[in-house]
Design a protein that fits this description.
Strands 1, 3, 4, 5, 8, 9, 10 and 11 form an eight-stranded mixed sheet that branches. This protein has helices at 33-41, 66-79, 153-163, 196-203, 229-267, and strands at residues 13-16, 26-27, 53-54, 87-88, 94-102, 108-110, 133-135, 142-148, 173-181, 184-189, 211-216. It has two domains: 13-226, Phosphatidylinositol 3-kinase Catalytic Subunit, Chain A, domain 1 (Ubiquitin-like (UB roll)), CATH 3.10.20; 228-271. A hairpin with a 5-residue loop joins strand 4 and strand 5. The protein has 271 residues and is of the alpha+beta class.
């Protein structure tokens, strides 16, 4: 990403794999395997993880003068022990690194590996249904992005997906600001126009004070139009399967309670 300055602002990326958890990889060569296999192998996409408390955080509302930006950049660089420094540009903008953690519960889709064409095909690739490959990103995957102070949250999401060659609609994802205070975790969804590097500068380098997280965009405003028809059909099948399993568990629980009551009645002496 470029901020319009004189220096080369091409984003540099660093990927950190934090787990060796199986990815649940599956190819869509089988017409129905993709989403049905993934979601039944894990907790449902509807069942949400541990609730994190929401609170409005004011980092993004801090407007800094050029002198304040220069001072904060110096303070920021003095607190880090790596080469992930921030740098001021002549036009008043600044560049630096942000770390984004992936907290995705759904698989992501990428183009399938290219297959070599045979001479019988005349060098042409077969036409027809577009295929893709889907997999779960390992837990606690993180990525460092080199961006400008003018880079918006929506651009960060698009850059992350492009780097992973993810073909899902970017609107399925959202960038969140996460902080920890007094034993509580606070989570706030960033608007498309917020500037993540500005948040990083104002909060400082501490990941506890502020960290950036990429999650599914499911805060009560899921854009179902962004999903394909096969995906939606698979979601319905998953919901039906979960409903049947839930009913089965309830019936079993009441049957066990009834058996225990009958045993208790049988062991008592009348009077």
């Amino acid at each position: 990403m470029s901020d319009g300055g004189g220096e080369d602002q091409t984003p540099s990326f660093e990927m950190t794999w934090g787990s060796t958890t199986s990815s649940g990889y599956c190819s869509q060569e089988d017409s129905d395997c993709e989403f049905e296999q993934y979601f039944t192998a894990r907790t449902s996409f509807i069942r949400k993880p541990k609730k994190e408390k929401d609170e409005q955080v004011e980092w993004g509302k801090q407007e800094l003068s050029p002198s304040e930006i220069e001072q904060k950049v110096k303070e920021y660089n003095a607190q880090i022990n790596s080469n992930l420094f921030m740098a001021l540009n002549k036009d008043g903008s600044y560049t630096g690194f942000i770390k984004v953690q992936f907290k995705l519960v759904r698989p992501v889709s990428v183009p399938p590996p290219r297959k070599a064409t045979s001479p019988q095909d005349g060098g042409r690739r077969p036409t027809g249904m577009k295929r893709r490959t889907s997999f779960y990103l390992p837990k606690d995957t993180a990525k460092h992005l080199h961006i400008s102070s003018r880079t918006r949250a929506r651009e960060v999401i698009e850059a992350l997906l492009n780097k992973f060659t993810v073909v899902d609609n970017p609107r399925k994802f959202a960038l969140f600001e996460r902080s920890e205070r007094h034993g509580q975790v606070y989570l706030r969804k960033l608007s498309d126009d917020e500037r993540p590097l500005h948040l990083r500068l104002c909060a400082g380098p501490s990941e506890k004070i502020l960290s950036l997280v990429l999650k599914e965009n499911e805060t009560g405003e899921v854009n179902w139009d962004a999903f394909t028809v096969p995906e939606l059909h698979n979601f319905l099948r998953i919901l039906q399967r979960e409903e049947e399993e839930h009913v089965k568990q309830i019936v079993q629980r009441y049957a066990r309670a009834r058996d225990k009551m009958r045993e208790a009645l049988a062991s008592t002496t009348p009077g």
